[in-house]
Design a protein that fits this description.
The structure holds 2 protein chains of 2 kinds. By secondary structure, chain A is of the alpha/beta class. Chain A is built from 16 helices and 14 strands. In chain A, strand 9, helix 8 and strand 10 form a beta-alpha-beta unit. The longest helix of chain A is centred in the middle third of the chain and has 22 residues. Chain B has 2 domains: 289 residues, Luciferase-like domain (TIM Barrel), CATH 3.20.20; 58 residues, no CATH class. In chain B, helix 8 packs across helix 9. The chains are: A alpha/beta, B alpha/beta. At the A-B interface, helix 3, helix 4, helix 5, helix 6 and strand 6 of A face helix 1, helix 3, helix 4, helix 5 and strand 6 of B.
């Protein structure tokens, strides 16, 4: 199976038992660099850096909950961190998130091409389209059609389709063998192998060519996380790996079927895209020990409620007006699969218990490493998924958790033959295509 | 005690300028984009106590020369060039003291995106990030960014003024003490110390706040290079350091004095901005050897002339293939690099003559000789001009780099002219140290 780690350039856990002093110095990038080194020791495919570009004051009309919880902010730019991480590692892929609604395509195509060179072929681009009103406002975008709604959700994907098409054209505007380095003719590049792209779309225009040489992967890995039908269609067209969060085995299986059907419809081999499910295993010395840990974690109801409320308050709905002890309110998904799933999973509960029970994982994994490893194998069999992305909650990452997964769980997966013990390729594309 | 000078290096994230030289590894001329060469380069500069590395940038493949990309790509003049914001954090993590200044254009970046990227790099580097503020000068670059042509010269500077204003508001949208990490109340950030900026201007509309706490330096060091009156005014208003290509001691002094006057008029302390003059020293073991190198450089091949005119064509979007290289210049104007064009026209009567000097990055005064002699000569010019330092535009190979960092700077240190160690953690503090 393929394995990755999902995190972001947020402060790590800062006020819990195993936080240490990481949160004092995280902005230097050193904590995340150390995490990446550990992931490489576990021979993971990649580290994915999620991102967003705003501080929300939706909840209660101020920044209090948002900033006290730091589930979304402060969040530093993943691109400089990705560059730094790739220089401190040798094999691990690094996928950085960028939003197609905010980046000029040329700028992003060039940035990713440069990072692919710096990493010697280990960079990936996680394409996101989500643009809450408060993020739009940071970029001065006042187009009503893009404001938070189901139609805006689909429009953003239409724009993203063009965006990615253009970015790929820019990457391919230099033929692979354009750099000839002919010392005798004093000719560094064969200019007949470099072409303008002259892209003139409905949403994006760019002349090209790019001003960087062809990068090691030529077409750096594209990652996507769409859960909606439109998002899946988009992912099926471009992605080599997908971050997936369907909850429960039936939905996981259906998700895989949907992606692969859309890939075939788009003329792609379904093997070309690896679907990785988000999981947050709770590990212990024994199954009972792990169970106790998960229960203790679940018992911190107030804290969990605040975390989830904060996470959910990135859009336009102010949940501070919703009584916590009444049945789950009507929620407008605005095309977002995450909200749909929350409603489905928590029907009949009070808002408080729905929030307290909510987790960001496709399937619950609790037990000793051996138990969890077996279960991970079974679930992949039954759902036909390609692997997992570990995630410990935004702003809740500790090195201890990383060590438990890398030194406890991954070796069990390796012993069962479920995870690689050595890298065989050198680029992220090669890691993903290895099996 | 003699007055100390500041040192910077004018770099770009591109292949070695001397890729055909016997002193450059073939593999490195191909794989420079992995960053190894630039890491070594900046480490050498740090060893020599340089204030900063300045990464120049542009966003196009030029075809101003003969309407074809051939000359640009054959000699790799403008392209390929990697993104400076990608290599800056890598250089920062590979060093401990030196400042890393990245170029980014106010015409192409959304302000929020750039303010956030640079704030992140300032954090990653522990307060050693700088921003070289450019407005871009090529329609060809604009056409990569959804525009038919660049905004008009003075409009670009108006936009840049507002861009800087927005960026500063974003960097100040978090109080310096907003991250309280209060364990008792479980509060990481005190929300009372973070505010939206609600900027609504002529060119930009930005709500804020930034989603990054205030950068270690408060705001990154600003670098600027505009030589036109509008550019000088912009630089005097904002810059912590200015790059100047003024030629001759008179012009250098005039430029620096003008900047200082403008700063005083704007209510700034003139010592709070360091003017750095671009120079290309030519060094040798002996005077004779240095002179020999210099003579060889003075007589460029036809390829050298093509390169120079290709460069100038890219910067000004004037097609020099349409102009007789051996006749006096006709009247020429540009919406691009105005100051650069003026300087180029002054280098010679004909395109060929000017190209010859351009090709060797001719700078006046010329510094040719042994490290000791050049160090003494630079000190003399520095004293006559009044300050503040030099920006080296040279290198091309590791040998060329160490000739400067270990040879020339060694001699400058002997004279007490440059620092031998860093006294401050932040780039701005090192710049303002003397």
């Amino acid at each position: 199976m393929h394995l990755g780690w999902f995190t972001n350039f947020l402060p790590p856990s800062w006020n819990r038992t195993w936080s240490g002093r990481a949160a004092d110095t995280w902005a230097s990038g050193d904590f995340h660099i150390n995490v990446a080194r550990r992931l490489e020791e576990g021979r993971l495919d990649y580290l994915l850096l999620e991102d967003s570009s705003y501080v929300s004051n939706t909840y209660g009309g101020d920044f209090e909950l948002e900033l006290a919880q730091m589930s979304r902010a402060p969040k530093h730019d993943p691109m400089p961190l990705a560059a730094a991480i790739t220089r401190e590692t040798r094999n691990l892929g690094v996928i950085a998130t960028a939003n197609t609604t905010f980046y000029p395509p040329y700028l992003l195509a060039r940035l990713i091409s440069t990072l692919d060179h710096i990493s010697r072929g280990r960079i990936g681009l996680n394409v996101v389209t989500g643009a809450p009103n408060q993020a739009l406002a940071n970029f001065g975008i006042s187009d009503a059609a893009l404001k938070d709604s189901a139609s805006a959700h689909d429009l953003r994907y239409d724009m993203a389709d063009e965006f990615v098409e253009l970015v790929v054209k820019l990457w391919e505007s230099w033929e692979r063998d354009a750099v000839i380095q002919d010392r005798e003719a004093d000719r560094y590049i064969e200019s007949s192998k470099v072409h303008t792209v002259d892209y003139d779309g409905q949403y994006h225009r760019s002349r090209g060519p790019l001003n960087t040489i062809p990068s090691p992967q030529y077409r750096p890995v594209i990652c996507q996380a769409g859960g909606s039908p439109r998002g899946i269609r988009f992912a099926a067209k471009y992605a080599s790996t997908i971050v997936a969060l369907p909850k429960g085995e039936d939905y996981m299986r259906k998700y895989c079927d949907d992606v692969r059907r859309e890939m075939e419809a788009a003329g792609r081999d379904p093997e070309e895209c690896k679907i990785l499910f988000l999981v947050s295993p709770t590990l212990g010395d024994t199954d009972a020990d792990a169970q106790r840990r998960r229960e203790a974690d679940r018992a911190r109801v107030d804290e969990r409620v605040r975390q989830r409320l904060s996470l959910m308050s990135g859009g336009e709905t102010d949940y501070s007006a919703y009584p916590l002890d009444e049945p789950l309110p009507e929620l407008d998904a605005r095309g977002q699969s995450v909200t749909d799933t929350f409603v489905r999973m928590n029907a009949g509960k009070t808002f408080r218990s729905a929030l307290a029970d909510d987790t960001t994982e496709s399937v619950e994994l609790v037990g000793a490493p051996e138990t969890v490893a077996d279960r991970m194998g079974e679930v992949l069999e039954s759902t036909t998924g390609d692997g997992y992305l570990f995630y410990s909650g935004s702003g809740q990452l500790t090195m201890r958790y990383v060590d438990e997964v890398i030194d406890g769980l991954v070796p069990e997966l390796q012993r069962s033959g479920l995870a690689r013990t050595e890298y065989t390729g050198s680029t992220l594309s090669e890691h993903l295509a290895e099996f | 005690m003699v007055k100390k000078m500041h040192l910077g290096w004018f770099m770009n994230f591109s292949r070695s300028t001397a890729w055909t030289s016997p002193w450059v590894l073939e593999s490195e001329a191909r794989e420079w984009m992995n960053g190894d060469y630039h890491i070594d380069w900046v480490r050498s500069m740090e060893r020599a106590g340089f204030d900063y590395a300045m990464l120049e940038d542009s966003s196009m493949v030029a075809d101003g020369y003969g309407g074809s990309m051939e000359v640009d790509l054959k000699h790799s003049l403008y392209a390929p060039k990697g993104d400076p914001l990608s290599i800056a954090p890598v250089l920062a993590k590979a060093t401990e003291h030196i400042g890393i200044i990245s170029t980014a254009s106010t015409s192409f970046y959304p302000p929020f995106l750039l303010a956030r990227a640079i704030a992140t790099i300032d954090h990653i580097s522990g307060g050693r990030a700088g921003w070289n503020i450019v407005t871009s000068s090529e329609d060809r670059a604009a056409q990569n960014f959804n525009l038919d042509k660049l905004y008009e010269h003075d409009t670009r500077y108006e936009m840049a003024d507002e861009f800087v204003e927005v960026a500063e508001k974003l960097w100040s949208s978090w109080d310096a003490d907003a991250v309280v990490m209060d364990r008792a109340t479980g509060t990481y950030v005190d929300h009372n110390k973070v505010r939206p900026i609600d900027h609504v201007g002529e060119y930009f509309k930005v709500r804020g706040p930034l989603n990054v706490p205030r950068p270690p330096q408060g705001r990154p060091v600003y670098c600027q290079a505009g030589g036109s009156p509008r550019g000088r005014q912009f630089a005097a208003a904002h810059a912590d350091t200015i790059i100047s290509a003024a030629q001759g001691i008179e012009d250098m002094r005039e430029f620096r004095d003008d900047i200082r006057r403008r700063m005083i008029d704007l209510g700034r302390d003139p010592d709070s901005c360091k003017v750095m003059f671009i120079t290309t020293p030519v060094l040798g073991n002996t005077e004779a050897e240095a002179k020999e190198r210099w003579e060889a450089m003075l007589h460029p091949t036809q390829a050298g002339v093509d390169v120079a005119l290709g460069h100038m064509g890219a910067l000004t979007e004037i097609d020099f293939t349409q102009i007789d290289a051996d006749k006096p210049f006709p009247e020429l104007t540009t919406n691009g690099h105005r100051t650069t064009l003026e300087k180029f026209l002054k280098l010679g009567k004909t395109p060929r003559e000017a190209a010859g000097k351009w090709a060797i990055r001719y700078t006046d005064p010329t510094f040719v000789g042994t490290p000791e002699k050049v160090a003494a000569e630079m000190s003399r010019v520095f004293d006559e001009v009044g300050g503040d330092g030099f920006l080296i535009a040279a290198g091309g190979s590791r040998r060329g780099i160490t000739e400067i960092t270990d040879g020339l700077v060694g001699a400058l240190q002997q004279l007490g002219r440059t620092r031998t160690s860093y006294n401050h953690a932040h780039l701005r503090d090192n710049l303002m140290e003397f």
